[in-house]
Amino acid sequence: MNIIQVQDYEEMSEQGAEFLFREIMSGRSKVIGLATGGTPVGLYKHLVEKINANEVSLTDVHTVNLDEYIGLSDDHPNSYHQYMFQNLFQYIDIPSANRHLPSGTAADFSEECRRYERLIQQLGGVDTQLLGIGANGHIAFNEPGSPFDGRTRVVDLAPATIEANSRYFNEGETVPSQAVTMGIGTIMESGRIVMIASGKEKAAAVKEMLTGEVTEDCPATVLQKHDDVTLIADAEALSEI
Ligand code: GLP
C-alpha cells in the first residue's frame, strides 16, 4: 500500500482532491466510486475548486456511490443522495443521469442490489474508488464480519456506526439501522483505491488495516490484498503506527 502521510485534515483533503483530479484529467478514470461521511467533505470542496478553476467539463464521467441508508428518500436531508448534491453535484456538470447511488426506498431491495451490481458491470467497473474508514474498520457499510466476497446487499449497521452517525441527525430523529452497500467483493474489483483517514479516533483502525491479520473481523484489512491502494492519512490517524 502506498502511504502518503500528511499533517492534518486540510492537507489530507487537498491531497485527496488532487489525486482524484489527476485521475479524471488523465482520462484514465471515467468511473469514479465516491464515499460519504465527515471525512470527504473537505476533499469535495477542494475538488470542486480545482474543477472550476481549470474549467474542466465532466460530462463523460460517471460516479458510483458506495451506499445509502434504507428508509431515507433521495431528498431527505440526511440521505447520501442529498449529501452528494450538497457537497459535490450542485457545483459541477456531471449529468444527473451519470450520478449513481443505490436507492434507499426501493420497492424490492433484492432487485435494487442486483440493479446496482449490473450497473457497475455495464459501466465497465469502477476505475478509482474513494474510501473512508470507520473506527471499527468498516468500509462503505461493510461492518466487521462482512464477507470478503460480498456483493451489493442490504446490511444491518453496527450499534457503534449508528451511534457515530447519529451526530448528523436531529435530536429525537431515528437514525436508520440498515443500509444498501456495495460489498467488499464489489469494492475490491475497483482498478484503484484511494482511502482518506483523519483523526485519532481512526488510528486503531488504520493500524489494524496496515499491520493486522487480514480478516473479515476488520473489513479494511482486505485492502492489503489489493495491488493499487493509496492511503492519504494525517498524523493523528497514523499515530499508532
Ligand atoms: C460511514 C460511511 C463510510 C465512511 C465511514 C466513516 O458510515 N458509510 O463510507 O467511510 O462511515 O465516516 P466518517 O468519515 O464520518 O468518519
UniProtKB/TrEMBL annotation:
Pfam families noted in UniProt: Glucosamine_iso
UniProt catalytic activity: alpha-D-glucosamine 6-phosphate + H2O = beta-D-fructose 6-phosphate + NH4(+)
Enzyme Commission code: 3.5.99.6
Biochemical pathway: Amino-sugar metabolism; N-acetylneuraminate degradation; D-fructose 6-phosphate from N-acetylneuraminate: step 5/5
Example of a GO MF term: glucosamine-6-phosphate deaminase activity
UniProt xrefs under InterPro entries: Glc/Gal-6P_isomerase, Glucosamine6P_isomerase, NagB/RpiA_transferase-like
GO BP, sorted A to Z: carbohydrate metabolic process; glucosamine catabolic process; N-acetylglucosamine catabolic process; N-acetylneuraminate catabolic process
Domain Glucosamine/galactosamine-6-phosphate isomerase, residue spans: 28-228
The UniProt record lists the keyword Hydrolase: yes
Active site: 67, 136, 138, 143
Record's keyword terms, sorted: Carbohydrate metabolism, Hydrolase
GO CC entries: cytoplasm
CDD domains in the record: GlcN6P_deaminase
NCBIfam families: nagB (TIGR00502)
Assigned protein family: Belongs to the glucosamine/galactosamine-6-phosphate isomerase family. NagB subfamily.
Chain's role: Catalyzes the reversible isomerization-deamination of glucosamine 6-phosphate (GlcN6P) to form fructose 6-phosphate (Fru6P) and ammonium ion.
This protein's name: Glucosamine-6-phosphate deaminase
Natural source organism: Salisediminibacterium halotolerans
Top-level taxonomy: Bacteria, Bacillati, Bacillota, Bacilli, Bacillales
Gene: nagB
